[in-house]
Every structure is written in C-alpha cells, then in structure tokens.
Amino acid sequence: MSSTYGKNIRISIFGQSHSEAVGVVVDGLPSGFRPDLDELRRFMDRRAPGKNSYSTPRKEADAPEFLSGLNGGVTCGAPLVALIRSKDTRSADYSNLKDVPRPGHADFTAQLKYKGAQDVAGGGHFSGRLTAPLCVAGGICLQILKSKGIEIGAHIASIGNIRDVRFDASSVGRADFHLLRGAAFPVLDEARGAQMLTAIEQARKDGDSLGGVIECAVTGVPGGLGDPMFDGMENRIAGIVFGIPAVKGIEFGSGFGGTSLRGSDNNDSFYMDGGRVRTRTNNHGGILGGITSGMPIVFRAAVKPTPSIAKEQYSVSLSGKSNVRMTIKGRHDPCIVPRAVPVVEAAAAVAVLDALLDGNKYQ
Amino acid sequence: MSSTYGKNIRISIFGQSHSEAVGVVVDGLPSGFRPDLDELRRFMDRRAPGKNSYSTPRKEADAPEFLSGLNGGVTCGAPLVALIRSKDTRSADYSNLKDVPRPGHADFTAQLKYKGAQDVAGGGHFSGRLTAPLCVAGGICLQILKSKGIEIGAHIASIGNIRDVRFDASSVGRADFHLLRGAAFPVLDEARGAQMLTAIEQARKDGDSLGGVIECAVTGVPGGLGDPMFDGMENRIAGIVFGIPAVKGIEFGSGFGGTSLRGSDNNDSFYMDGGRVRTRTNNHGGILGGITSGMPIVFRAAVKPTPSIAKEQYSVSLSGKSNVRMTIKGRHDPCIVPRAVPVVEAAAAVAVLDALLDGNKYQ
Amino acid sequence: MSSTYGKNIRISIFGQSHSEAVGVVVDGLPSGFRPDLDELRRFMDRRAPGKNSYSTPRKEADAPEFLSGLNGGVTCGAPLVALIRSKDTRSADYSNLKDVPRPGHADFTAQLKYKGAQDVAGGGHFSGRLTAPLCVAGGICLQILKSKGIEIGAHIASIGNIRDVRFDASSVGRADFHLLRGAAFPVLDEARGAQMLTAIEQARKDGDSLGGVIECAVTGVPGGLGDPMFDGMENRIAGIVFGIPAVKGIEFGSGFGGTSLRGSDNNDSFYMDGGRVRTRTNNHGGILGGITSGMPIVFRAAVKPTPSIAKEQYSVSLSGKSNVRMTIKGRHDPCIVPRAVPVVEAAAAVAVLDALLDGNKYQ
Amino acid sequence: MSSTYGKNIRISIFGQSHSEAVGVVVDGLPSGFRPDLDELRRFMDRRAPGKNSYSTPRKEADAPEFLSGLNGGVTCGAPLVALIRSKDTRSADYSNLKDVPRPGHADFTAQLKYKGAQDVAGGGHFSGRLTAPLCVAGGICLQILKSKGIEIGAHIASIGNIRDVRFDASSVGRADFHLLRGAAFPVLDEARGAQMLTAIEQARKDGDSLGGVIECAVTGVPGGLGDPMFDGMENRIAGIVFGIPAVKGIEFGSGFGGTSLRGSDNNDSFYMDGGRVRTRTNNHGGILGGITSGMPIVFRAAVKPTPSIAKEQYSVSLSGKSNVRMTIKGRHDPCIVPRAVPVVEAAAAVAVLDALLDGNKYQ
Question: Which of B297, C289, D99, D203 is most buried (CB neighbours < 10 A)?
C-alpha cells in the first residue's frame, strides 16, 4: 500500500510524473463546504514550477479538474476527486534510468520493489509532481480550517548554511502568514532571503543543488487534539510530511536543538492569560504527550538537496553489473525548498483537519 | 484511538504508570517462533531503572508474564499478550497534578482531552513506564529479525552538548552492536561517554535534567521494503518512534545536517560490490523514495531533557485560575536518554518486522 | 492480523481457550464513564456456561479483572484492559487434534495457517471462550449506549426448525428487551421456547447438536450514522458479528426473505410522526445506503449447529495421510445459540458505539 | 469515511451517478501484470445496462479510461486509476428528491447525514452506477487471480420465489463458470431462468420490481487465507459485498439453511483425496474459523427488489413536514439481480486477492 493517508479525512494520491494525469481522492470532507477555487488556484501557484530561475522551466497547467464530490460547487459528502492533466512531458529524457539509476533518487529502490515494471519517466510515482494533488487536498483543508479559526503558515528556515530567523513560537500568527503567502520567496528576514537566492543561483551555475529547512506553524488549534503514543500529533504530522519527496527529517518545537538545553530551560512555564492557560515559551511546539496544548504547533522539515544535478555522477549499469559515469539531462530545480513551502502547509492542513474530525476530540 | 501501531504486526500497548499492570498485545507475529526469554530479559534489563545514579531508584520487576500467544514456549499465531505487574508505586506523590500541571509533561493536555478523568499518577498512560511493554514487543521482534539476518543497534549520539562519534553509516554492523549492547552506557567513544556521565551527575546535583540524541542503525535489511509517499519506511519508523515519550525529532541519513550539503555531496554514488549494488556513502540512511536500498537504515531521534526536575518551576492552578510555583517531588532520572536506547531499538524492530511482513514486498 | 475491530473504539481480543487468560483491550472509550460492574456481571452471566443441561458443565469464573483504563472506577482515556483467568481446563482432552482435525472446527485450517504451531487445546484462539472478553467490551459499550438512549436486545429467532415470532421491526423496544434480558431462555413466544428446549434436550441425548438464528434490534439510534459503500452500518455490523465463532450468515431488515417480495411491498413508506420522519414498516432494518434512518436496526445472525458432537465422525490422520473415524471427548453444548444471544448484543454494541463516535456523524 | 476497502489492495471508489465521472483508485496491485483490456471490457459488458427489457435503457459508455498505474500496458506499482465518464444523464428527473425522499432509497438517510448538501441526482454516491468502477477493480483482480489458478463465478440463485438449482459446493468449477459467463441470463437451470424472465417482465408491466439471490463460488483458493475473529474471510467478503447497493444479507456455505440441520449433518467429513485433504460436503463454504480450507468458497448475497418502481408510493415532504404521494419518473431496472452478478464476482475478487497478498498467509 502506499499513497493513502488519514483516518477521518482519507486522501489517496495517484499518478506518475508522466502519466496522463495525477490527482487525488479526498474522502471524508465535511459536506456543505464551498471551496474558494480562486484561493485554491493562488495556493497552487505558490508551488507551481517555471516561475523563476531556481525552478524548473517545465510548464504545468496545474489547475485541477474536479470530477466528483462537489454539487453546485459545494462538497456533497461523496469523495472529492481532482485531476491535474499532464502536459509538456518529455519521456525520452528518461529512457536509460531503468538500467542506470540516478544517485539520490528512487530509481534503484523502485527497481528492487517493482522488478523493472516501474514507470521511470520523470521519477514515476516518486516524482515531486505528486505534491500537486497533495496541494489540492491540503488547499481545501486549509480553507476549512480557516473557517474554524485555524491558520497555517510556513517559511524557508534555511537554504544550505544560510538561516532565516525563526518564528517566534509563542506569538507566531496571522500577520506573519499573510506576508509569507504573498512573498515570491517566503522568508521572515529579506536580507537572508537575498543571500539564499544568490546561493541558489550559484548552485545552478555550478550544475549543483541545495537543500534547506522549512518551518511551519499552525495557530488557533484547540487543545486536546491527538492521542497518546502512536497516534499523537507528532506521529500524524510526521506520517504525512515524510510523504513529501526529499524530506529526511522533522522536529517539533525546540526539537534537536532542545536536546542541548537543560530541563529547566526547555520546560515551558504555564501561566494564566486572561482566563486561558498558555505557556511563556513554546519549546514543546504546541504538543505534549501527543496532544495539542492550544499553543501554536511548530515544526521544521529537512529537505535534502535536489538529487537531480547537471554534474557528472557515479552510478552502475544494472544490466552490465558495472560501474558507470552518468549525467542527468533534462530540467531540474537547483533548489526545491521554495516550492515545497506550500506543500508542507498542505500536509499539515490534512493532518490537523483529520485530527479535528476525530470523534473523541471532545471526550 | 491511541496506542496501537502496525499493519501486519499490530501492537497495542496498555496501562498507566500506577495501574495494576502495563502490557502489550502483539497480533500478527509469525507462528512457530520460540522467543529466547533469557535474551529478552537481558534486553529489558538495558531499559530497567534503578541501576545507577542517573536513573530513578524506583525498582521495577519488569519480567513480563505471558498470558497468551505462546504454546509450549512457541508463538502459536494467536495474539501474544505480556503483562508487567506494577510494584513499588507511590501514588500519593501525584495527588496535586490535576490542579497544577507539571511543565513539559502531558498533565495539562490530558486534562484538556479527558476533562479531569485522566489518571495522573506517575503520568498515567503518558508515563515512560509504557516503554517497558514496547520493549517486550520489540525485543521479540528483534529476535525474529536476527533469525533473518537483520540486526539493530543504537547508541547515545549526544547528551546535552557532548557528542559521541557517529556510526559509519556505510559500514556499521554487528561488531558495533555487540559492544554497545554489553555496555552500561552505550557510546562509541568511551571518553565522550565519561564526559556525558559527568554532565548528567552535575545536572542531578543541580536539580535539573539533560536531553540527548540516540542514533540507531538497522543492518541486513533487504532492499524493496516500504512503499512510496505515506507508507514509506521513514513515515513508518517516525510513526512508532514518536510514540516514545520525550522524542521531539527524527532524521534519517544525513538528515538536518544534509540540508547544508550540495546535491553533489549529499547524493550517494552507486557502485558494484561483488555483484551487489551498494552506495559509497549512506547519506540516504538506507531509504530512497520511502523504500529500502539494502544499505543500513540509519536514523537519529531527539530526546528532550526529562521534564521532571527538582527545581522550582512556574505553573498554574487550574481550579484557582492563578499562577503558582510548584516543585515536583518523587524520584526521576536526570537523563532518560541511556534508558531510551533499547526502546528506540525496540521501536525500530517493530517497524522493520512489520514492513518485512508486507505481502507486497516481493512484487 | 486478526482479532482487532473498530475505528474509534478499537477492541483487541486475546487468549486461547486454555491459555492462562483470555481478555480484551478496549482503546478509545470515552473518558469519564463509570461502568456498573454489577450490571456487567449480570450481562456476562447470560453468556456463562454451566447453567443448565444444554450448556457445557465446565465452570468459568468469568468475572473480569481490570488491569488498566479505569481510575477510581471511571474510564480515564487510557486503554481499558480486562482479563478473565482460566480455570478448570483439561488440556489432555485435546492431545490428538493436531493430527486428526475435528469436522466443522478450525483445527484443520489453523494447521494450514500456523503449520502445526497453533494451540489446539479447546480450539485455541478459535474457541467460543473468546466471546467472553467480547462480552466485557460490548457490555461496557451497551452501558454507554444506554446512557445516550440507545438500547440493544436480542432473542432466539429459531432453533433448528422451530421458529420464535419475530420482533415487530417498527415498534420493538425497551419492554421487549427487558423481558428478554431477564429470561433464562430468551424467546418472545414461550411455547415455542419450550419446544426448542425439548429439541435441544433430544439432540443432547442423541449425541448431536442444533443450530439456530438470533435476531437483534438496536433502538434509539440517531439517523445519519454510517457511511456509504464499504463503511456502511451493514458492513460494520457484519464485520464484527462474523467474528463470533459459528456465525455463517447475517441479514438486515427483511433480508433474504425480502428478496421474495415485490418492490412495492418491500419499500417502507415514509410518514410524519409528530414532526419526526418514520417508516410504516421496517423492511430496511433501519439502514438505507449504509446509513441509519432512525428506525430500529434489525438483523439476524445464523449460528451453525455446534460442531462438537458425541457421535462418531469421519476425519483424516494428517500424519498418516489416511481416513480415520474419530470421536470427540469432553463436554460441549448441544446448542450454543442461547449463550450466543448476549454475544450478538455485545458485538452490535461495539459496532454502534464505534459509529456513534465517528467524527463525521454530524456533517 | 466511506468508499475505501482493503488492506493490501486498497480500492477507493468515487463519483456520483451524475457527476462528470465515476472511477476507482486501486492501490497495491502487484506490479508487472498486463491486464487484458478486451477481457475486462467483456466483463464490464455483463454489468452494462440497456441490453434488454429488464434493465434500464440508459446507455453508458462504460469503457474505463486509465489515467495512471499502467506503464506500457503493465501495472507499474503506482496506484491504478480508472475513470468512466458520464453520458446521457438527465438530472432534471431528480430535482424533487431533496424534499420528497424515495422509499427504499438512501435519499432520506443522505439528507440526515449531509444536511441537504448531498448530490441527489440519480442517487448520487449511492447509485448502482458506482458498481461500474468496482467492476473495473474487480475485473483486474479476477485476471490476476486467474493467473494463479483461482477462478470466480456466480449465478442467479433466485428471482422472487423462483429458485435456480444451487452450485454443487464440493465440485463447482471451471465448466460451470464458463457457461455462466457466456450466458445472457446466468442460471444453471435454463427452464428456471425462463420462468424468472417471465416474472421480471410481469413486474415491469405492473410498474413493480423484483429482488433475488446471487450465489458465488471461488475455486482454487489455497488453504490458510484469512485470520481468526474479525479479519476472517467471511468478515472480509461481507465487508465488501455489503458495499453493493441493495445487498441486505449474506450467508456462507449452508448459511441460514444450515441452522436447520443437526451438527452431524452440517459438519463436513474430511477425507484424503490423492494426498490432499478435502471434505465430502462443503457446508462450511470453504471457510472454517475465518480461514480457508482449500474447498471452494461459496456464498450467497440477498439483493432487495429495486426500490425505484413506477407505482405510486407514500412519502413525506421534508420541508412541509407532511405526508405526500409520489411517483418516481425516469428509467429503472425492474430487477437488478442479473446485472449484479458480475458485481458480486468483482467484489469477491477484490477480497480474495487482498487476502492472498497478506504477508502472513504463509506463516
């Protein structure tokens, strides 16, 4: 099994990079909700390729086609299905990949699993293109959450060694999110953003690539969501965020950095704030024991450098059982982190809405 | 829902810190396997408290009592159930926790979710004591994996700011694991280990606590395990490891550090090694596209500093809606990282065996 | 996987007939509920063996021991675990079953699946004894449902060829249930009940056994529970009722009999009843399109004749690969239908409470 | 949640009767399989409407369009998606259904669940049209099963009061299936079939409808598939078959009829048949303790009379809170049983292939 997620909202993503279409089934959406399709298009545009020098020039018409689940533009309770047709594919670019797997890609592991039947063109089902339908699903979930006072925003926390400032985990909110959503390159500190862009451009010129970290926050979350142990909010968010290709790590609140603190510094003091319990700091990232505290959920995802690079690399010929050199042709982002920002938001939205629909949330 | 994990092997953990017993149901174990109960006891002993100055002096008789699932000492196909009876509990220590939640603990979020019905004694179902039955389940899975040539080992990668050397991700193996399993304090570099112990002792004296990072490796894993997107090995391992209390982050292979590398450095070159495809480096941590490559799986989990500290802290009185100071009484580890090492191994074992039993692994 | 059921309430049943204990984990119960243990005991007693001539004289002390999940007698949100210790077992009776499987039992199929490692004593995990923990789980669910105005009752609809009258599907309710729960032999028509008892006694004398049908009704169910297609209430109830050993069929509303009606007779006319929509008849058994209508849920389960009979039967020796005659020793009910009545109620209770806790029920 | 089924093969069905398309995602199909699309079309044709006087004259172009999951005509491991575009719909026929629900349909229960947002046209997501994508999924599963020696066939066991002969449960096989697949009206006894057709024609003339029973057999099933209790083959098959609209009952082997037998008659004697264990009779329907015995799986599904009839019926006006008379316009099958025969085969195919892919089947 593979590409399904969720308990109350179940998304099932399908398609290969160069198949006729990619898409998603979203089962379990509350009925009676009217998605704002313009807002969804704007959200999708933040992920779309071909906008600038650091993203692939391949053009996608990412406008989703809704086949079912809407009735008069309103969710009707039946599974919602959105298709994104493929255009402008060049399968010929990939003809050699079954024999010579690209380093850092899933070509080799797909070969092991599917014994040569896998669709290698463009990475097949492992392609970053599959994040487009995730954005359709997540984009609608974002709108539903917003209608309930829950908002999600994310920014580029680092590109290579260059770090943006972090969210203020205790006070992050709507103002930050509004600015970030409108930005061509979503960072909190524009000067750092400029440095990042320079580094990306340099990597592109070098035929190389860069990775980075995305920081995401969810505000307005009611306390009491999630469950202990294996169905906690950390497990659930990690369970969907690791579905985004190239994510190799996730941390909540103070995360790995928090392991260098002493307990007296990492513990978040409770205090009363006008009748509501809050914490002074938010090293717990809004989650204690798997359950939300009502403070913002804050997490960071590590995105590895794009494995597709123009530089020559070492690989093997599976048929010849020999070592070979190989060069990847085609067009690739020198850094996918900027385009992955809305994808992380989308993933978080699905996980949070799924938890919000848990029958046991108001025990 | 909460404390169940797995698709082919399903574990269901139960109990509260001070309930009559904690335990686990393990459904789906292959039949006909004879667990080595002495080896299991030795494995459990690595987690057991009360062994030294950095762990709580509470005595546990962690020897599991098997109620079902074994027939003549051999797994019979029926769900295996193991109980660990509670002894030496002092519930009186916790009487005030419903009103004044401990910073960094789940007391407050449990209150939100369960509306005052939660069992607060010793942290209830959120207690680290629940990792004992996880070790029973994982300990048996480890033995089954070993019989198939798959081994799992882990060490303390850091305590506070003091770092052990890392596993050599490409060549980690049995020799490392053997040493680590026999060590009272499992590190690769004993000098660093001594520094860590000093730091822990200092934290204890200061009425404070320390966190750390645990690195875990799985060797002998066949290629082709796991699925794309949401059922990849990273998702699955994260899904169980975040079930260990105090884990706030996980990263695979080069992880967060890999985001500072360029693609040409982070990509792992393939080469032929006596007819078998391997990678020169292992920045991918044995997983590409969610699917195992045959290289060792390597991941690190961030463990936050023990939230229970002797120092006075700030909290609130939920009944009085006022800010209060509070001091946690009772006995607590100044650092739970050493005892969490076998727990991480256990969690990895369950996830890997679950994947190994996937019907589609040999597509 | 096997013995787990449910999405919001997850029950996981364990044990073998002659293992040290059988039991159940119930995860997801609403917190803050105080089970009435006396009422639970009375419910369990309806299933208990040894009460009369048509049930096995084996004595069970079916009083469950609660290990966790209760705090001060109230559900605390953590998984509830109940054990029933085994007593009075005679494993020696079953020593030959690995070689000579009993007709109509799971001995042979367990042998195929578990390759000789299965626990054959008393039927192992396939024993009817596993319905005792199902009754613990279901008994508590019944109490929770009752607190929400939902009641469940069942009666013996037939034994062999002797049929009780059926529930009036449109008006079945509390009065019927009250009488049935208090009856030693739960039928609506006592004269038919007397005939059934005579038939059972005759079968016992003949060294033979009888089957029958159990009819179950659930009243007070709100409309709108369940989902279309594969997660409808029929699918869900069937999914748990077929977990009761010996059940070989299930039908809802007019069921198989309804296939002989014309649409104009089988369709249930809607009418207004004091501002509420009801149906004149209830051939739909309270479920249309998988979703509850607010009319009583009515279903019937077919229970095959007890496969354990005293008469000589034909089987095979698996080791000798030869045909043999065999006689089953030990003590067995000539008819398990009466004892299965509360088990069917318990199963229905778990399914209905699980649906009631669906996050999407109030879309 | 609703329209997903399966553990190893996961099908997710989408669409409404009059939405732009209906379709299915099939995740988990073994890779490297080349579906025979001509054979699939012939299978789909058996379900297609408009062929004769007892089925609706609405024309469907049920040829599925494959969007993903195939690469060069071969399954590539990625989720397979098939669409069936809608044509020839007349939504105007259904405009009044939100206010006046049709007896026997899901109009009323959908109203309760989706609060007026449901798509009523043609029954929306509850329409029998959703069985077309189930046939696509099941048709491919049938082909995969056939390649492993497993075949599935079904016939009309009864229409109204007219009964076909039953399968010989012990010897049913390829010859029967071959004849049935080629028949316009699949019965074993053609004389009975002729009577059934007459009865259907009479019901049509009367503006009424008929129900019936479908009997299905699966041959070549290896022993040892399925699990005890809640994941047995009966539970699994029931779990998908109740997803077919209008199914109100299911029974395995001797089923409800078997409850009238004594144990000595209902038990199936084992015997050696050339080194293989078989049973003389097959009252157990190929399943004991939830696990396959290697004998044919045999089950029967009860299909209620088509609720759409031309006769005037009684219903309510939900807006007016009053009783009303209503007449259903549009075109409807007087008996859907013949068209449901391949749907039952398809459902069985998905359940059996799903079980065959269980990782634990060769414990």
Answer: B297
**Do D32 and B361 make contact, defined as CB atoms within 8 angstroms?**
no
Residue of B nearest to D357 (CA): B359
Q: Give the domains, in start order, of chain A with CATH numbers.
A: 4-356 (3.60.150.10)
Higher pLDDT, D130 or A95: D130
Written as one letter, the residue type at D329 is: K
- Residue pLDDT, tens place only, D253-274: 999 999 999 999 999 999 999 9
On chain A, the residues whose CB falls within 8 A of the CB of B115 are 363
Rounded-to-integer distance, Cα A136 and Cα A350, Å: 10
- Beta pairing partners, A70: A75
Q: What is the predicted ipTM?
A: 0.96
When mean pLDDT is compared across A43-57, C202-216, D134-148, the lowest value belongs to A43-57
Question: Of D105, D249, D254, which has the smallest distance from its Cβ to C252's Cβ?
Answer: D249
CB pair distance less than 8 Å for B1 and C21:
no
- Asked if C318 reaches chain B (Cβ–Cβ under 8 Å), the answer is no
Look up the pTM and report it: 0.96
From CA B357, how far away is CA D358, in angstroms rounded? 8
Ligand-binding annotation for C311, yes or no, is no
Task: Name the DSSP class of C317.
Answer: E
Q: Which of residues 75-104 of C touch B (CB under 8 A)?
A: 75-81, 83
**Dihedral sign (CA D138, D144, D146, D148):** negative
Q: Lay out the sheet containing A21-27: strands in order across.
A: A4-5, A10-14, A21-27, A80-85, A65-68
B251 shares contact with chain A (CB less than 8 Å)? yes
Q: Looking at beta carbons, which residues of chain A come within 8 Å of D16?
A: 68-69, 71, 76, 78
Tell me, yes or no, if A289 comes closer than 8 A to chain C by beta carbon. Answer: no
Is C307 annotated as contributing to ligand binding? yes
Query: pLDDT value at position C83?
Result: 96
Give SS3 for B7: coil
User: Could you tell me which residues come within 8 angstroms of residue B2 by beta carbon, excluding any fewer than 6 positions away?
Assistant: A227, A228, A229, A230, A231, A290, B125, C27, C28, C79
From residue B115, alpha-carbon distances to B118, B213, D351 in Å are: 7, 34, 42
Report the pLDDT averaged over residues C291-315: 97
> Rounded distance, CA C253 to CA C247, Å?
18
Structure token pair of residue D209: 């409808």
Instruction: Give chain B positions within 8 Å (CB) of C4.
Output: 4, 10, 12, 27
CA distance to partner chain B, nearest, from residue C231 (Å): 18
| Residues of C (206-225) whose Cβ lies below 8 Å from D | 206, 208-213, 223-224
Interchain contact D228–C (C-beta under 8 A): yes
pLDDT digits (tens, 9 = 90+) for C275-291: 999 999 999 999 999 99
**pLDDT score of B363:** 47
pLDDT of D209 > 60? The answer is yes
The answer to whether D167 touches D188, Cβ cutoff 8 Å, is yes
Q: First and final CA of chain D: distance in angstroms?
A: 32
- Tell me the C-alpha to C-alpha distance, in Å, between residue C275 and each of A68, B234, C288: 34, 54, 20
Q: Which residue has the higher pLDDT, C346 or A329?
A: C346
pLDDT in tens, C148-177: 999 999 999 999 999 999 999 999 999 999
Chain C and chain D share a number of CB contacts under 8 A equal to 375
Are D68 and A15 an interchain contact pair (Cβ–Cβ within 8 Å)?
Answer: yes
* Euclidean distance between CA atoms B92 and C271, whole angstroms: 60
Answer whether residue D153 shows pLDDT above 70: yes
Chain A touching partners, 3 or more CB pairs below 8 A: B, C, D
| Option in A242, A285, A289 nearest B106 (CB) | A289
Q: If you write DSSP's letter for every residue of A225-287 in order, what string do you get?
A: -S-SGGGSHHHHHHHHHTTSTTEEEEEETTHHHHTTSBHHHHSPPEEEETTEEEESS-TTTTE
